[in-house]
Amino acid sequence: MSFRTYSPFAAMLAPLAALLALAPASAGAGGTRSFHLGDFDDFDAGEAEGAAIEGSGKVTVGLVPARGEVKGAASVFSCVADPKDKGAVYLGTADASGVQRIKLATPSKAGAAEPAASKLAELPGAVVSAMTTLPGGDLLAATLPGGTIHRIDGKGKVSEFAKLQVEQIWALVPHEGRLLVGTGPKGELFSLDLNGKDPKVVLDSDEKDILAVLPVGKDVVVGTSPGAKVLQVGPASDGVLVHDFAGDEVRALALVDGGLVAAVNDFTDRGLSSVQALTKNLNRTSLVGQPAEGTLDATSGGGGAQSSADVFFVALGPKRDLARASEATWESWLHKDKQYFTSLLAGAKGSEVLVAASQQGKVYRVRGRRDVATVADLDERQATALCRLGDGAVLATTGDGAGAYRLAVAPAQKARYRTKVLDAKQPSTFGAVYLRGKGLTLRARSGPSEEPDKRWSEWKPVTLKKEGDALAGGLSLPTRRFVELEVTLAEGGELRDVQLFYAPENLAPLVAGVDVAHPEFELTDDDEPEGKLTIKWKAEARDDDDLVYEVRVRPEGTGEKEWISLSGTEPVTKKEYKWDLGSVPDGVYEAQVIASDEPSNGVSRAARDEVVSAPFVIDHKRPAIDGVKVSGLSITGTASDEGGQIHDVAFSVDGGPFRAASPSDGLFDTGREGFQLTLPEPLAPGRHRVVLRARDSFGNIGSHAVIAEK
Signal peptide: which range, if any (predicted)? Predict the structure, then answer.
């Protein structure tokens, strides 16, 4: 019976469509996929303008940043309110060390020119690291490097207030009629009178730098680096350890209702000092006298080193008892990987605290370990400092681009949230969008690049209609790979969830090759192998579609109509198929594998790819052994096979284990091979039965028995 007319095989023939029709449906069937934003991290990856991203996973109306222009500097590093003007603030700049003054009363209207800062004074050094004001209104400013504190009057006249024998000044804080100065690199806290005289070291710590200084009643707490310690200094204490964090620096401290808050940064590089962190933050070399190795960015806190940042809170009780801080548990209210916290500012009420961060110029509002919100997302990459103005408003400064922002409650038309650029991986049709929330309007745009540019489409309004518990709309955008959504929130509006459906252009799967492996066996096997041939292939879904396969075979040299489906109506999901050869005639065949992405795209949009294997042999015939000659203990003969090559010849004496015979010409590589063997000693005198076994490359075994006599 020929292969072509063998009815059981012919009955297995089925079209590919029938095979795929039984494939299990997968998520996104028909090629449909979706983007989903629903929690804090999802929303925080986007950009907010006047919108707050709540830790509970929703966007609400928040603070709108009114920007002021700061010229002639690369960064603003410090700020302090002007005591004589409730809406004005002094800015300490970097790269061009100096002081500028700006007044930002209300958010500027769309299209209006940004208020500009005016230069008050130029100072020596690289950065104004700390500022405060004296009771009479004069400004004190410290610059790095060096230990000089400059006095600046309202007209910009600069004089030396004090000069300390230190290399860095990190904090200037009035307290109990004196001025406290946090310094480095010896970790000293100085106290001076308000005329810059009578300097005293009130704390000589084991740390290198005192970065933060915070009065708590008559006492003071300080934050240090590189040990990340909080120390208490007061009439009855001299550097008492309040808490030792598992980090590298306590960058900032704040006192809120009910407790104490600390911003702690943790660097992977344990040798990184605070001055090196600042150096890399500002990209300056003059601070340390050696080239900077990097800049502070979204993945490098403190300067080029992988970092994480935490905001910790400890309850002090109604009397603000600092002794509790060394006994009670410090709770982590906010943790961010690849982040660096730069400043803290106590909020206007309760236990609220604002946190300035390096990543994407974010300002977080924290009210507890479950109440976190992103309340400002500044244009520059780094938020460097926060200060409270005389009228109660908050001002934030920025680095990696000098700027100052007054943060105020957003007018309705200013509260906007823009998603991160969403990547569909390939050009796509964008369809329905669902917003869950209230008081929302929507715009969308698409483009061919990860960064929006002139090739992107214009923002297009999307009409939203109530559908169930969501606001639904349809996007009509050019078919592009990238898409971005912008949601505007009216007063009292909120956004809780976004889902956008899209369908990428379908890419055909790719079958890289088909390999056919003969039945496997070992030399030590005494039986023929299982009669199955393994067909394996490599296949790739280039657009992450789910794939199914059809496996077909035909005799070599026959036409397209001779293909026989092995897999039948059962979808093949693995990248191999074992073919049972029990009733398959001998011959030369070829196999074909067809890959289809129908489970992800449906029948009409499915794409496929197919590859045919190299010809292969199916051989059921057993080898023959003839021409056997026995001469004493030596035996020679010939093994032959019609369908393939001789794989090995072995022998067994008197029912013992089989041992390998040797090919006469040194290797078994053809269909007819001579062999030779010598019976092993010791062997008892007399007649011995020797079974000869020849095996071909398919594992078929032929045998022959002879008698040898010793």
Answer: 1-29
Mark the ranges of the chain whose per-residue pLDDT is less than 50.
1-29, 110-111, 289-305
Q: Write out the E strands in 205-248.
A: 209-216, 219-225, 229-234, 237-244
Residue pLDDT, tens place only, 384-422: 999 998 888 899 999 888 889 998 765 555 688 999 999
Q: What is the pTM of this model?
A: 0.63
Q: What are the DSSP calls for 416-463, one per residue?
A: EEEPPPEEEEEEEEEEEEEEEEEEEEEEEEEESSSS--TTSPPPEEE-
Which single residue is written with the structure tokens 């983007």?
Answer: 35
Which residues on neighbouring strands pair with residue 249, listed in sequence order? 265
Q: How many percent of the chain have pLDDT more than 70?
A: 88
Tokens linked to 568: 């039948």
Neighbours of 660 (CB within 10 A): 13
CB 263 within 8 A of CB 311: yes
> Tokens representing 480?
């592009």
Spatial distance between the Cα atoms of 265 and 356, rounded to a whole number of angstroms: 12
What is the rounded CA–CA span in Å between residue 323 and residue 237? Answer: 11
Q: Are strands 229-234 and 219-225 parallel, antiparallel or unpaired?
A: antiparallel
* Amino acid residing at 107: P
What's residue 5's pLDDT? 30
- How many CB atoms neighbour CB 249 within 10 A? 32
